[in-house]
Amino acid sequence: MSSNVHGVKKVKTNEELAQARKQKEAVKIKEYNDLVSRCKEEVEAKHFEFSTLRLTSDILQLNPDYYTIWNYRREILLQGIFPTMDEEAKQQVLQQELEFFMQLIRINPKSYSMWNHRRWCLSVMSKPDWQQEFKLVGKMLDLDARNFHGWSYRRNVVANIREQQLDTKEIDTKEFEYTSTKIKQSFSNYSAWHYRSKVLPSILKDMTDEERTAVGKKELDLIKNALYTEPDDQSAWLYYWWLVGRVPSHVQIVGAYSVSKTQFLFVVFDDEVQLAGDIAVQDEQNNKVNGSCYFQPPTMPSPLHSWMMKHWQFSFSNWIQVA
Amino acid sequence: MATEPPKTDKLEVDLHVKYIQSLNTKKDDLEYWLTEHLRLQGIYWGITALDLMKHVDALPREEVIKYVCDCQHESGGFGGHIGHDPHIQNTLPAIQVLATLNALDAIDADKVVKYVASLQNEDGSFQGDQWGEVDTRFCYIALSICSLLKRLDDINVKKCVEWIVKCRNYDGGFGNQPGGESHSAQIFTCVNALAIAGALHHVDRDLLGWWLCERQLKNGGLNGRPEKLEDVCYSWWVLSSLATIDRMDWINPEKLTEFILSAQDLEDGGISDRPGDMVDVFHTHFGIAGLALLKYDGLRSIDPVYCMPQHVIDSLGLPRLHQHNDKMESGV
């Protein structure tokens, strides 16, 4: 959804003001609609040239969420402009696309269309500069430390940098330290805690037990600091819960009953259970008996206390144990 | 000085019906033209809200059906408006509107399913269109379309589930891609995609329920992520996820109802993101859908998985993948 419907205050108006605004808008509407129809005509006529590209720029400056126009832009580049160019010139045009993004992203930093276009540009560049992207996304997250698109793009940039490196330790450490910086700026930065949970496992991967313990103690210190500063904030609590590990609760079987002279069994649990797929049971001689759940996706109901199974071999007399 | 907006403790159905009817007459607003790419989705938001308020006839049925059909491309996908490029995000609302109007036979379902299947990637995820954006939103959309058309066998549901599970986080929530931060709207798409796939066992109900119910703020409204502002649309994303995992009683329904009602425009109708802001059909729909989940008096019940009136899902012969409305009458 376009973000222009969020946080816009309703302004009191009267008939006179509304009339004046409408007159002003009528001019803009005409200009805008003329631009759109000219652009569509050019694209339909397959005039994939710089002049058509400029028309898309003019429209996108007024309406950066118009996804079809972004599609036109890529078609124009791919079909009309790139084929006439060498790699260097192509790189230059794509660099201009990245600059165009910088102009527009100020209008709506949460525009899916724009972030997609940037990703696409990098994907067709012969020499993408990921370090430049790394700096850019750092700046974006300085402006808004919670921007969902910013964090998403950061993961994309880091993944590309990781791909180019044999030893990923440096980039992983850098990212881990980045989350420390962001968390220390604000203990409520949930995005940074989240990202930390994704980076921490790769940091620990090649460590000795002593090194791991040291990291663990440092994590607990950080969490303690956060909890003292922001005791009502959920961020550090959830991270803490995850770090120390949660105690899994085990579900018990109350009993299993076979229906006389049929292939059906009822298995009863002490809690609601959703079955992951086919199920196997053991008969009295400890032989594995394969079967399937009577309900199949998508008709499988929500978790239930008891389940009916259909088994291929019919050999039960009374109690059985679920494997 | 800002003046306090007038208050009401009831849903102003007549005003909202009029507001939705007025949307197609605002051609002298620049905004009307700038939001053209959202028109088909807007019709879904409008029709669904109207049906929940028992006024589906307030929009001209035949005209709507024709418009929806005109948005379809040869590929089978739908554009956001006539002449706009096809995208999976516009294909679901097309199917939803036609289903609600009992007019699914107006389109060629084969073509639609083929289009959706063509967007599935090797790893099970879905892209939004030929340009390759990948997001858990599109998994939900693909599963929802195929389920509504009873063609789930035409896509690889198992692989899709495997990919969605990769997007699960330590807080029990889900992000837009593997590694992405939990966000209520993405949680809606993942939880309900898993519900359609019969794979809700991948959800840790208590952990996720905790995270979701913490989204309620002191003023009763819900936010989408920790430390963010409340917003009426999360009345849907959060609440429907809680309904699907059977944890809706973990939030305070009276305070949420009060918050949604306080975001109504009592002069011109419609509901906004927060009290005093400009209304739009997106928030109007999700506010009313939230109230329907809360069993607000006079509204029809809604299916939390499909975000469509329960009677529509029931009459399509689809199973209820949740227990939310089971104690209710059919809602018609």
Could you describe the 3D structure shown?
The complex is a heterodimer of chains A (323) and B (332). By secondary structure, chain A is α+β, with helices and mostly antiparallel strands. Chain A is 57% helix and 11% strand. Chain A has helices at 15-44, 50-62, 67-81, 87-105, 112-124, 130-143, 148-164, 169-185, 190-204, 209-229, 234-244; strands at 253-258, 264-273, 279-282, 288-293, 304-311, 321-322. A 6-stranded antiparallel β-sheet of chain A has the order 1-2-5-4-3-6, with no helix packed on it. Chain A is extended. By secondary structure, chain B is an all-alpha fold. Chain B is built from 14 helices and 4 strands. Chain B has helices spanning 13-22, 30-34, 39-52, 61-70, 88-100, 109-118, 136-148, 157-166, 184-196, 205-213, 234-244, 253-262, 281-293, 310-315; strands at 271-272, 279-280, 302-303, 308-309. In chain B, strands 1-2 form a two-stranded antiparallel sheet. Chain B has a two-stranded antiparallel ribbon with strand order 3-4. Classes of the chains: A alpha+beta (323), B mainly alpha (332). Chains A and B meet through helix 1, helix 3, helix 5, helix 7 and helix 9 of A and helix 2 and strand 2 of B.
Summarize the structure.
Chain A has helices at 15-44, 50-62, 67-81, 87-105, 112-124, 130-143, 148-164, 169-185, 190-204, 209-229, 234-244, and strands spanning 253-258, 264-273, 279-282, 288-293, 304-311, 321-322.
Query: What's the overall average pLDDT of chain A, rounded?
Result: 86
Classify the helix fraction of chain B into a percent range.
Answer: 40-55%
Strand percentage of chain A: 5-15%
CATH class of the largest domain in chain A: Mainly Alpha
* Helical percentage of chain A: 55-70%
Gyration radius over CA of chain A = 30 Å
How much is the radius of gyration of chain B in Å? 19 Å
- List low-pLDDT spans of chain A: 313-323
User: How many structural domains does the protein architecture of chain A include?
Assistant: 3
The total tally of domains of chain B equals 1
- What is the string of SSEs of chain B from the N terminus onward? HHHHHHHHHHHHEEHEEH
Strand content of chain B: under 5%
How many strands, which pairing sense, and closed or not: the largest β-sheet of chain A?
6 strands, antiparallel
CATH structural architecture of the largest domain in chain A: Alpha Horseshoe
Elements of chain A, N to C (H/E): HHHHHHHHHHHEEEEEE
Number of helices, where a helix is a run of at least 4 consecutive DSSP H or I residues of chain B = 14
CATH architecture of chain B: Alpha/alpha barrel
GO molecular function, one term (chain B): Rab geranylgeranyltransferase activity
Family (chain B): Belongs to the protein prenyltransferase subunit beta family.
Function (chain B): Catalyzes the transfer of a geranylgeranyl moiety from geranylgeranyl diphosphate to both cysteines of proteins with the C-terminal sequence -XXCC, -XCXC and -CCXX.
Keywords (chain B): Metal-binding, Prenyltransferase, Repeat, Transferase, Zinc
